[in-house]
Amino acid sequence: RRCRTRPFRSTFAKRTRAMGADQALQEATTNVKRGAFEMKRALGEENLREAIHAATKILEELRATSLTPQRYYDLYLRVCDELTHLEAFLMDPQRRSLTLTEVYELVQQAGHIVPRMYLICLVGCVLIKSKAETTKSILTELVEMTRGVQHPVRGLFVRSYLAQQSKDKLPDHVKTGEDGSVEDAIDFVIQNFTEMNKLWVRMQHQSMPGGPGRNEIERKQLRDLVGKNLVLLSQLESVDLPLYQKSILPKLLEQIINCKDDIAQQYLMDCVIQVFPDEFHLHSLDALLDAFAQLSPTVNLRLIMSGLMNRLAEFASEDATGLQEFESVDAFNKLSSSVSNILSSRQDLPVLDGVSLFVSLVKFAVSVYPEDVAYAKAVLDSAAAAYGGRGQISERKAVSQVQTLLSTPLEQYEAVVLLSFPSYEQLLGCLEFPARHAVAISTLKQMLKKESKMANTQDVERVLTFLKPLIVGEENEVTLDEDFSEEQTLVSAVVHLIECPDPDEQFQCIAVVKDHFQQGGIDRMKLTFPSLVFAGLKLVGTLQSRGEGLGEGKQLKILFRFLYETALTVGHLSTTNAAINCFLGCAKAADGCKEADLSYEFYTEAFMHYEEHLGTTKKQSDALQIIIGTLRDSDNLPKEDWDRLAKKVVSYSSNFLRKQDQCRAHYRCAHLFWKVGLREEDDQVLHCLERALKAVQAIRKMSDITHQKVGPVALLYVEVLDAHIYHHLAGNRAVTLEIIQEILDAATEEVVKEEVSDSSIDVRAYFERTKKQLEGIASPLTNNGPTTAGSFSA
């Protein structure tokens, strides 16, 4: 069918040269609206010829030459939106006066090629949908006729319109029928894709304001028009793996390789990887990897290869049963060989690109082979061979990729195993200190999260050597900030990952850790050494459970000597309660081994540290509470020694400056003297409780004198009441119900006077819980006695 032309004069091209792009778009939009109004009016009058004439006027605006691709795209969308009204009219046979074949002939009379092609595509697709013509013949004719538009931008949009109009009309079945088969649909889409890609590549060689750089920007703005053809192919439901391998992939790769354009190759290869199923890629690896090797040298293979490996890694992680499928195609070895070939063929490949390829490959190995560390080791070995001898890497992004390469396997495999690989150490040597420090932290966090165990001194040495940036640090570093403290807290936990079957080797491992910690200096040692003490105490418990005592072997003697020296070091370095905790833990362990003298010595050191180094009331109060709890549970000290220590603790309680601290310390000391079956000293308990009560009464008196709140009187009364009730219920008859009643009355009075606030609400709730303990206890008061709101006899 030959196209007969009908003259239709337009001054648009001349007009757009004389005005700015924004003004041109605005005027073109106005003309589109005007033409759309005329077209809709003609359609309403069922005047098809006049409607087509108006549609031609609308499409004339797409002959623009001065619009940027983005503005041209905006205009294109508006025009396509208006053309839907004409399409809906043509689909209604009762409204149109001409047959579709006659309309098809009519639109070919449009004067200019651009509006003519849009109308031909529109009517041709309506013909297909109405079954008036065979699908195959119309599609073949349309894809050939659109070759008439050779202007790159206009031609791209014409073919894009053709793809858009035909996407739901393509034959999508295997058997060949009147409308063709899926292979005909594939041929149509690939032919359209090929022509569009040629036009897209030609844009690079156009002479445009702004030079080649501007051309590249505008090309990238239009790349999705070309890529939609690949999306259309991927949406054909009848396409299976054999058909993809035979009819789609080879033709696509041929066109991509032959275009010789780096922008097109980069984008289209990425499109192929992203739009088609992962299973297709897995079984077409050879073809894809061969195509990668034939791409332009300026194409960034890192992005393409990484995209492919990441897709396959995700596919493997989602389908746990697909391991055999990956092994059947030898996917890992093919990808690994391809990476090696890229590195050897491109000597000038940036370090960032090369390391990124190894990162994607190790992610693939971890995802596909989560139970076999050998594949990850192979990647690390290859990476070390490529970059291990090049010196330190300084580029920030490349350093980040090396860190990712080292940390990715840690998410799946044991750190102790990975650190045994020489390649791991070589890659770590490529990094400067800050990067090694970051890798060490991430590795340590993974070890603690997974509770990775170290079973011998070799493992411990290997891990601690790797963590040297954290254990030793560098010169002139800041060691007083919060980040440093958090970091060293993590380091101190390493010793708790040691788990040896033999106690002797367990102790040797702890000693190795101590040797390494000593290299970190005072600021680190005061934070890390306490963990050594508690690791040693855990080993003491292990030996005790085996029935070993100090007199039966050397192990415990050596261990307690180690604990004593380490605890003394903590005491000399630290002014916190850490040293108190260490000494008291050792004292309790020695008491459990029935070594009274040794236990007493540890208590002595704890008390000396309390007196000499704890300067604040808060530290003293917290420490005293721990001392009381530990001393109360010491069952094997001679009575003289125990009494001497208890007396010292009681004296500490009286030395607090504030009455409220004295009060709390005294009623806590009462617990020292009451342990059913072992220690039941009624008078001493009552003496401590009386001192606590006197302290709170002194605060109350001062508040009454000054008419100001001197301390938390109500809360202290409730706490003292709670302590009296506890000892009464524990069987201490010196704490009588009369005493409890007096304190209850005083506490009730103070709670009632307490002003309403969040803290007062907590006090009232505490008071009510305390009173509930008195339920079921007989009242000591006679019927003639006083009745109070707080009386538990009520």
Compact description:
This protein is mostly helical. It contains 39 helices and 2 strands. The chain has a two-stranded antiparallel ribbon with strand order 1-2.
3D structure, described in words:
With 794 residues, the protein is an all-alpha fold. It is 70% helix and 1% strand. It contains 39 helices and two strands. The protein has a two-stranded antiparallel ribbon with strand order 1-2. A hairpin with a 3-residue loop joins strand 1 (674-675) and strand 2. The N and C termini lie far apart (111 Å).
Q: List the quaternary state of the chains.
A: single chain
State the major sheet: 2 strands, antiparallel
Give helix % range.
55-70%
Radius of gyration: 43 Å
Strand content: under 5%
Dominant shape: elongated
Could you tell me the mean pLDDT? 88
Strand line-up of the largest beta sheet: 1-2
Secondary structure tally: strands: 2
State the separation between the terminal residues, measured CA to CA: 111 Å
Low-confidence stretches: 1-18, 780-794
Class from secondary-structure proportions: mainly alpha
Contiguous helical run count: 39
Question: Which descriptors apply to this entry?
Answer:
794 residues, mainly alpha, disordered C terminus, 1% strand
What is the fold's blueprint, element by element?
Elements (H helix, E strand, L loop, with lengths): L11 H6 L3 H24 L3 H13 L8 H22 L9 H8 L5 H17 L5 H11 L6 H15 L15 H21 L8 H11 L1 H12 L6 H18 L3 H14 L2 H5 L2 H9 L7 H18 L4 H6 L2 H15 L5 H18 L4 H15 L8 H12 L7 H4 L3 H7 L4 H18 L6 H10 L1 H4 L10 H11 L10 H15 L4 H24 L8 H20 L4 H15 L3 H18 L3 H16 L6 H16 L4 H11 L4 E2 L3 E2 L1 H25 L6 H17 L7 H17 L4 H15 L22
Antiparallel strand pairs: 1-2
